Amino acid sequence: MYYNKIRIPLLTILVILMILDLTGVIYIPGIVIFIIAFALIAYNIYIRRNISRQHQKKN
Fold this sequence. Notes:
By secondary structure, this protein is mainly α. The chain is 83% helix and 0% strand. It is built from two helices and no strands. Helix 1 (4-23) runs antiparallel to helix 2. Keywords: Membrane, Transmembrane, Transmembrane helix.
């Protein structure tokens, strides 16, 4: 699915950044992690609304 081309890399980046930050390899400000997480949540909401609207138009 097209939507996964954006979600999976963002989620992978988020997990890698969190692991590197927790292990002390690099320091990442918490705001960066929150911004990426918020972007993923907002994008998921956008996708769900878009799919919902497409199904309503078909019926």
